[in-house]
Amino acid sequence: MTDQQDSPKPLDSETVAAYLRLHPEFFIDHDELIPELRIPHQRGDTVSLVERQVKLLRERNIEMRQRLSHLMDVARDNDRLFDKTRRLILDLMDASSLEEVVSCVEDSLRREFQVPFVGLILFSDMPLPVGRSVSSAEAHQAIGGLLAGGKTICGVLREHELNFLFGSAGADVGSAAVVGLSHNGLHGVLAIGSADSQHYKSSLGTLFLGYIAEVLSRVLPRFSTPLRSVR
Predict the structure, then answer these.
(1) What element of type H or E holds 165?
(2) Selecting from 1.10.10.1100, 3.30.450.40, 3.30.420.40, 3.30.110.10, what CATH number does the domain 59-222 have?
(3) What CA–CA distance (Å, rounded) separates 62 from 110?
(4) How far apart, in whole angstroms, are the C-alpha atoms of residue 152 and residue 213?
(5) Where are the domains of the chain?
(6) Torsion sign, CA atoms 136, 216, 91, 95
(7) Chain Cα centroid distance, residue 146
(8) Whole-angstrom Cα distance, residue 146 to residue 55?
(9) Is the pLDDT of residue 2 over 70?
(10) What is the mean pLDDT of residues 135-146?
(11) Alpha-carbon distance 98 to 92, whole Å?
């Protein structure tokens, strides 16, 4: 009876697991136990602890390399976008006419940025000699909801909004990003579109498009005195 009382109690699996977590070096001092350990394999076989650890480390290494590769791709894409944006902004600063401003934006977005659908609309109560212009009242009636927040809007737009922004090509636009040209008033709107309905999602980063719009909204009033400044 005394022997039964003095005998150690069996350890449960949680206690063993907790101990090993606190002493990860346990098998370094007791490596003779490693050959006796067996861990179930997905196929129903058994592998040693070392083999299992090597497999897990290999999988984690592959995952980390994939993440690093993704980050490198994003960084390269951002570098290319920055370079294209820088060139466009410099061209806008060097422009000497409204015609040059409009052509710089449209040509750069289509050729450099490879944007298939571009809509640049200026707000003016008088017809402008270049580009597309409408009155502010007409613009607010058609896309007032897109301009109300003063921020870039991304996603799937309504049919009449696409038709207003892209004309006859609006039927082919699956998703778009829209930003108002606002500086001391609202002077116009810039929109870019894609046939893919998932391309311009609501969570899409619009940093570079915002930069272009900010510069454009400051350059336009220099050459377009008829432009209406809408508060």
Answers:
(1) helix 159-166
(2) 3.30.450.40
(3) 38
(4) 10
(5) 59-222
(6) positive
(7) 20
(8) 52
(9) no
(10) 89
(11) 10
Neighbours of 57 (CB within 10 A): 10
Give this prediction's pTM: 0.68
Distance CA 156, CA 79 (A): 27
How would DSSP label each residue in 17-82? HHHHHH-TTHHHHTGGGGGG--EE-TTS-EE-HHHHHHHHHHHHHHHHHHHHHHHHHHHHHHHHHH
CA dist., res. 134 & res. 126, Å (int): 8
Question: What letter would DSSP give residue 156?
Answer: P
Contacts of 215 (CB under 8 A, 6+ apart): 89, 92, 93
Q: What separation in angstroms does the CA of 46 have from each of 42, 57, 93, 155?
A: 9, 18, 69, 51
At 89 the three-state DSSP class reads helix
Q: What share of the chain is helix, strand, coil (3-state, %, to 5)?
A: 55, 15, 30
- Report the distance separating Cα 219 and Cα 105, nearest Å: 12
3-class SS of residue 84 = helix
175-182 β-sheet, strand order: 132-134, 117-123, 186-194, 175-182, 153-155
How many Å apart are CA 189 and CA 228, to the nearest integer? 13
d(CA 64, CA 78): 21
Average pLDDT over residues 86-110: 93
Give SS3 for 220.
helix
Mean pLDDT computed over 153-160? 94
Q: Is 83 exposed, middle or buried (0-12, 13-18, 19+ CB in 10 A)?
A: exposed
